[in-house]
Amino acid sequence: MIKDKVVLITGGSKGIGYGIAEVLVSQGTKVAITSRSQKAADEAAESLKLSSNDNVIGIESDVADFDAEKKAVEKTIKAFGKLDVLVANAGVGHFANIKDLTADQWNQTIETNLTGVFNSVKASLDSIIESKGYIITIASLAGTNFFAQGTAYNASKFGLVGFSQALMLDVRKDGVKVSTIMPGSVATYFNDHVPNEADAWKIQPEDIGKLVLDLLTMNPRTLPSKVEVRPSMPPSK
Fold first, then answer.
1. φ and ψ at 52, to 5 degrees?
2. What does the similarity note say (predicted)?
3. What pLDDT, in 10s, does the model give residues 202-235?
4. How many CB atoms neighbour CB 170 within 10 A?
5. Fold of 2-229
6. Does residue 113 contact residue 91 with C-beta atoms inside 8 Å?
7. Rounded CA separation 128/82 (Å)
8. Is 25 within 8 Å of 51 (Cβ atoms)?
9. Catalytic residue annotation
10. What angle do CA 82, 225, 76 make, to 5 degrees?
11. C-alpha span between 142 and 84 (Å, rounded)
């Protein structure tokens, strides 16, 4: 039952991660959300607790730091007794022509969007194998569609899609399911954007949350290993 599950969501203090947490706690799951800021994690957790009977904790962790991710998993298990689901959501975006993209921007993008997912998965894998649980990575349509000024972001998301699909093959015999969700335009704070009324046509964070819920409640015999999701009616260019 979904109500009995313990879920760790990286980058869960806002945007897609928060939207996923909001949907899952409404179903009675126990959720740990991480952020690079303890204050942001705590504030988001307090907000989520309004509908969750205190089954939410906030944890400070940077996915680029493997030891921090190990501690996040340990804190989740200490609070809730186990770990069933990892949602590897934390991500950043730097978009610039290769002539202007800096080495620091490249490194941060790869370390967060790709190495960061490896760190989260590696830190939680023993526990998820034990629970025969689920790993969901949040990639992007940019993981199959390249675009100008996307060298760093495309590289990270193409890599993440490949990583996720290979991971799925590595752990399926352990009873662990792996899916990667590839959203198009989502109304979030990504890349310093502030969501507003003009974003009504975009995917909303709670839509991704509902998709995660659908994956977690699907019959175990079926695995949607890669899910592309896009706005149904984008504005005409």
1. -130, 5
2. Belongs to the short-chain dehydrogenases/reductases (SDR) family.
3. 999 999 999 999 999 999 999 999 999 999 998 8
4. 12
5. Rossmann fold (3.40.50)
6. yes
7. 9
8. yes
9. 153
10. 15
11. 28
